[in-house]
Amino acid sequence: MQDLAGSQVLLLPQSPRLGELQILNWTNRLETDPYPLQFTAATFRLTADTIIIVYRGTDSSLIGWNEDMNMNYMPKAYGQDVAADYLREIAQKYPNDKIYLAGHSKGGNYAEYALSVAEPELQDRIIRALSFDGPGFFHQVWKAPGFVRAEAKMKTYLPESSIIGTMLDHPERVIIVKSTAPMVQQHDPRRWSVGRDSFVLADSLSSGARSLRHSFIDFNHTIPDKQRGELWDALFQAFDELNITDVFQITAHKLLGTVRFSRVIMSLPPETRKYFLHMLGEIINAIRGNISLPFSETDFAMYPKSNDSKKAPIFFEFYDTTVPSILPDEIKRRFIAEKEAEKKK
Predict the structure, then answer these.
(1) Average pLDDT, stretch 204-214?
(2) pLDDT, tens digit, for every residue of 218-245?
(3) Total domain count for the chain?
(4) What distance in Å separates the CA atoms of residue 54 and residue 43, rounded to the nearest whole number?
(5) Residue 297 located in a structural domain
(6) Rounded distance between C-alpha atoms, residue 82 and residue 328, angstroms
(7) Which CATH number is 80's domain given?
(8) Contact assessment for residue 64 and residue 78, using Cβ atoms and an 8 Å cutoff
(9) How many CA atoms lie within 13 A of 154 on its CB side?
(10) Domain annotation covers residue 93
(11) Superkingdom, according to UniProt (predicted)?
């Protein structure tokens, strides 16, 4: 199935800037069996001995969004394994090339995951895996030996008011990029600030992004994984039964979209509908409980700012509660030390 992305890939040879890139492969899959899968990847030749594999993020299909919801509570998604298999296939087809991996949003997660589960010999051929506002990983993934071995080759770029990028944990190096767009629109890398030959770095994640990070963790610890899984299954089955296959069927027209979404909710079994409304309330409560956090006189306000996790942590909280956050006293000590150092300059 060729969609708009496929058409754009095929137009690359006509581009004045990228026209010399050789397209080695383009793959597009949209499937429901055995699991929801919206997967697009392309491979390009950069130099005589270097190729790049690029994974696409989520499109507007409900299948893609269903897959994203699975990633919110499942440590490993089916699409991640598909991405890893794609890397192996391309690496086998071009055995003498070094490889870059890259992707936006879900595709960034795929790029770093594919690197993490590759065999050591293949990991050694990979120069770097780049993620642009990818959602991160659960600890079951980033604690795995392969991930730890390859982590130094991973780099993630997040806009300063990231939403998708705050969903899960980022143990890899993270760079925070400046954007002047509203929070929701910052997921589009075309809205990130660019200098002469690099991104413009922000001071740190914005207060809104930090609030959202806490809300995600709060929500995901409040609603059990099993119940979330059952709810998403019922919700997307209702979408399918009402022949709603694309997000634009809900979002393109406000009134019509509201009616369609209301029909989906009303078609759910009574107990499922009750639980959905309860979960919606929990999301709102999580946001309310954390929205003022960065502005309050709490230990959170003392977190040192950083635009590069190599210099200081971007995230202090993890989904894995066994991973200790930096203690408040240590945060205060660092904060005071930084202020004293600034005064001496």
Answers:
(1) 84
(2) 777 777 777 666 666 666 666 666 676 6
(3) 1
(4) 6
(5) no
(6) 41
(7) 3.40.50
(8) no
(9) 31
(10) yes
(11) Bacteria
